[in-house]
Amino acid sequence: MESIIKKIEAEIAAWSPKGGVEEVGIVRATGDGIAEIDGLTNASMNEMVLFDSTFDRTLEEALKDPSPVYGLVLNLEEDAVRAVVLGDAAKIYEGMLVRRMGRLLSIPVGEGLIGRVVNSLGEPIDGKGPIKGTKNTPIEREAYGVIDRAPVNVPLHTGIKAIDAMIPIGRGQRELIIGDRGTGKTAIAIDTILNQKSEPESSRPICIYVAIGQKESKTAKLVAELADKGAMEYSIIVTAPASAPAALQFLAPFAGAAIGEYFMDQGRDALVVYDDLSKQAVAYRQMSLLLRRPPGREAYPGDIFYLHSRLLERAAKLSKEKGGGSLTALPIIETQENDVSAYIPTNVISITDGQVFLESSLFNQGQRPAVNVGISVSRVGSSAQTKAMKKVSGKIKLELAQFRELEAFMQFSSDLDANTKAQIDSGRRMTEMLKQNKGVPLPFEMETAVIYAATNGYFDTFAPEEVSSAEQKLQDFLLREGKEALTAIKETKSIADDTEAKLKAALDAFVARSK
Amino acid sequence: MITDYNTFIVHLKRTGRMKLLPRVLRELREEEARAKNLKREKETAKEDPSLISGWRQIKDGVLTDNTGKRALIDIYRNIIA
User: B75 vs A24: CB contact, 8 Å cut-off?
Assistant: First the structure.
């Protein structure tokens, strides 16, 4: 009680009148989360405004609901401004006083956010109390320029064999995850976050997962999964659920980027997952139409490309002079009927540095992750691949491409020559080896060892359908008896001759015991 | 804003646009109402006890608020933040 009285006394002592400096406007009309405001002639784009319900009410009424409703100015017109309401639009009424806040939309960023779940405005929604140790930063910021950037050359391991071997992702890269609903897009992003636990703490990226327009139950499940596996220690969740106003869904990725940039500016690595940008585009379309901006293709506004390009351009690998930090972006796009040539998918494909394409037919065939290696690509990641992974994965893509060509002949297998049969079997083994359950990302050294075994014929003694179980046994075996080789790969990130000899010896022993 | 109404009506007649006059008037009324909204006479606590103390005024879209009510709300918000 005493502390409350002291706080009140301190606030009264600190209060000073600041009348005469506030520019105000009046709500002319409101509806669908948009307010049309008279006045505010000096307001600027993206400036925050405060809808003040206390002005017309008595003190008693005002204190009953003192929580302010904020708005974001998005249209500057000849005789009015239009703002989107960032909160309960039902509280806005005609004639309501609107105050300029004189600052761009900002959110709190900092160490205090780690392990927390926040909304698009950075407000905690996990019931763990206020967030401490943060500073405010604008949600929109110009991306770093050419001079401030360095080439992407440090890998970001996803722990997924198919991706790390064939579509490697580097720190600072923007790699799109694209596919129909239910093909495992979120699973890849979550596995990537989980896999960062195996990274040394000093180089472990801070992971930011931005959930846009998702069911709250799905986000709650995801948070529980991350917490269960100890990944919330280095993760932050930004959520704008399906029930949130379109404005908050549109802002959520920018909030995630601002949080990630804070860590990048500290010289650290950060990873941000935007799940998903199709829903953000839909939210932006809704807002734009309500703001009466002219509709373009599929009724999206003319600046829908700029919306995504300015967001994704904020992912970067900074130069040493700028601290050497990085922000890797994994945007997710949901396609309809595997159509990657639709408007939003093609936009985001052209912006990003590659894409992981997940195909529903592969998913239904039991290929998990359902990565279509043929049209998945990483444009900058290969230079970030470790020597070890480069050495073992060089042949996989070619071998799989050859396998796909021969696959059509599989139904006539009785008429095929021995050489073609062997090639088909080898491709099937490789495909089986690349299968991986969700939630079990592999450490980089284990991935390397398993791929080495597959590309060097150590699984040839097994029938293709036995490869999955043989691989599991091999992993257990290596953890018991191949530790030396695994440690050497982990530490040196390469496979030197002596390490290769140790690995070969362990693999020979495994094959001999499996016979 | 129209400053010389006579010249304005002559202009409408000459250009054959007299039909626009009701719309122009409606627009002028709306503009006047908007301007009125953004200009409020000085209110004092004597006239309106809900202000508790002091005075406030909106002039040309700028609010000067020296009321006790505003001060108490600001303090309350800071305490509960």
Answer: no
